[in-house]
Amino acid sequence: MTQYAKYAKKIRQYFSDHPDYNSAVHLIAGVGIGILLTYPLVGQHPIRWSVVLLVVALLGHLYPLAVKK
């Protein structure tokens, strides 16, 4: 099993054990993508907001790797 597969398995296991956290991370990612797609409707700095939300979602996906069990 590759190192990537081990990381992916750990992230999937964490998300399956914490469905509320899973929902929050994917909601934030969805909002970030939605802002990128509908940027004229957001107002000022839509790219900045979407990048911030997508970075938060990415960090949310990396958090399970940092948690010690």
Automatic annotation (TrEMBL):
Domain of life per record: Bacteria
TM regions (residue ranges): 21-41, 47-66
Protein name: DUF962 family protein
Source organism per UniProt: Candidatus Gottesmanbacteria bacterium RIFCSPHIGHO2_02_FULL_39_14
Keywords recorded for this protein, A-Z: Membrane, Transmembrane, Transmembrane helix
